[in-house]
Amino acid sequence: MIISSHVPAGAFVGMAIRHPVPALAAGFLSHLAMDALPHWGTGPNTESEWLPIARRDGVAGLAAMALLTASAPAGRRLAVLAGMTGACLPDTDKVGRYFVGSSPWPSRFDRFHEKIQNEARHRLPREVATAAALTLAGTVLLRRLPARAS
Fold first, then answer.
1. What pTM, to 2 d.p., does this model score?
2. pLDDT digits (tens, 9 = 90+) for 74-120
3. Distance between CA atoms of residues 20 and 83, nearest Å
4. H or E element at residue 119
5. DSSP strand E in the chain: where?
6. Among 6, 7, 11, 42, which has the minimal tally of Cβ within 10 Å of its Cβ?
């Protein structure tokens, strides 16, 4: 799953949970649930294929995170940010491997995370559209939330 799909999902988690620590944990779990769904991917050891897309996706994910954070009412902003952060954390395995040669996660978790993937190369257009729709929906919903966290 591209990170720009995980980001708005994490924002929805933060909207629903409203407290940063549980939102972080639930965001993490949302990532794993989403990775079990059919999504774009190239499989393990295919860096030359996914890296150009990952670069663009990383920028899009950061932009979505900024937009969603800015759209959140002040009283919910931290929970929304925590949900998005949690939703991105499992993919730090790829960042770790690329920049320092190893994942920050235990190998058992990495094997589990790899095993649950339901990837296919042809799904990228649908996933980009999904990420855009989720980000748009999240932005609209966040702007409609009351300012106070309850």
1. 0.93
2. 999 999 999 999 999 999 998 999 899 999 999 999 999 999 999 99
3. 7
4. strand 118-120
5. 38-40, 118-120
6. 42
